[in-house]
Design goal:
By secondary structure, the protein is an alpha/beta fold. The protein has one domain: Glutaredoxin (3-Layer(aba) Sandwich). A hairpin with a 2-residue loop joins strand 4 and strand 5. The termini are far apart.
Length: 108
């Protein structure tokens, strides 16, 4: 999974040709570490369909504030330059698959 920053966010996420999930996280966040393997797995499985990235909120607070990220982990799926679906908190893989099923090619 690629890291995005305040500086690269517009190019890497908002201008992307494919949907992008941004994992808003911090190194000190235990629940963030718990969901990281789920996002890594989905990233491999969805290569070419949906891109998965990470944004460290401690180093990139401007983007986190712009999207109202007050709790981590928060994962937001962006498509066409707009936030489409947000999942807050550490959840099981099935929860992310339901929330993003339309983009992941899953049936509801």
């Amino acid at each position: 999974m690629d890291e995005v920053t305040d500086a690269s966010f517009e190019q890497e996420v908002l201008s992307s040709e494919v949907p992008v999930v941004v994992d808003f996280w911090a190194p000190w966040c235990g629940p963030c570490r718990a969901v990281a393997p789920i996002f890594e797995e989905l990233s491999r499985e969805q290569a070419g369909r949906v891109r998965f990235t990470k944004l460290n909120i401690d180093e990139n607070f401007v983007t986190a504030a712009r999207y109202g990220v007050l709790s981590i982990p928060t994962a937001i799926l962006f498509e066409g330059g707009e936030a489409q679906e947000t999942v807050i908190g550490a959840r099981p893989r099935s929860h992310f698959e339901r929330a993003w099923g339309r983009w992941l090619g899953q049936t509801p």
